Amino acid sequence: MDTKPPKSPPSPPKVKAQISEEEALLFRSAMKKIQPIKKSNKTLLKKIVVRPRPREIFSENESVPLLSDNLTEKIVAPEGYLFFVKPGISPKQIRKLRHGKIPIAATLDLHGFDSESARDALITFLEMAYQKNKRSIIIIHGKGHTQAPVLKNKINNWLRQLENVLAFCTATSRHGSTGALYVLLKKLR
After folding, report:
1. E strands within the chain?
2. Rounded to 5 degrees, what angle do the CA atoms 149, 151, 157 make?
3. For 101-125, what is the mean pLDDT?
């Protein structure tokens, strides 16, 4: 009696894609100058996605900042540079922030948010970052499609109102340029 398990059915034959000699030549010429990407010591940061939560969810013990929409700052164009710093921040720390040299602990991407949802997401994200002592963060607001980008200008105004925000500035090109901000938060006490 044969105790061997039954053989599995043979897999279907593999069909090679047929390309013409002209297509192969075109592909080879397009790939001629391509080089493999070198491995680097860079660490990829985990992107934190914050879903906005309604203000009713905050408990009575939590203080919910009511951020004013009254723009007190000059309207900034899509390519305009933003910079804010509270007194007492060292010039060295400001320089590191402006050049993107402070390790980023968290990222908030507000693309596609309306103003109200963006405000709620921003408050929630900043509170979470502060509670977890994540001091250097990036907020991606986008450049906007109008003369005066709505979210960029509102975030510029809102961040200036928050006690835990020590400084912020437009990100370098590798982190989104004029569509993003580096933000420095207070240390958790």
Report:
1. 83-85, 106-109, 136-140, 165-170, 180-185
2. 105
3. 92
Residues 6+ apart with CB under 8 A from 102: 93, 96, 135, 136, 182, 184
**In the chain, what are the domains?**
82-185 (3.30.1370.110)
**C-alpha span between 54 and 170 (Å, rounded):** 28
- Global pTM reads 0.63
Q: Residue holding tokens 């990829």?
A: 44
Pairing of strands 180-185, 165-170: antiparallel
- Residue 126, burial from CB neighbour count under 10 angstroms (0-12, 13-18, 19+): buried
Q: What is the pLDDT of residues 38-97, one digit of tens each?
A: 766 666 666 666 554 444 333 344 454 566 766 666 778 888 889 999 999 999 999 999
Beta bridge mates, 140: 109, 180
Q: Quick one: DSSP state of residue 170? A: E
Cα–Cα distance, 187 to 189 (Å, whole number): 6
SS3 179: helix
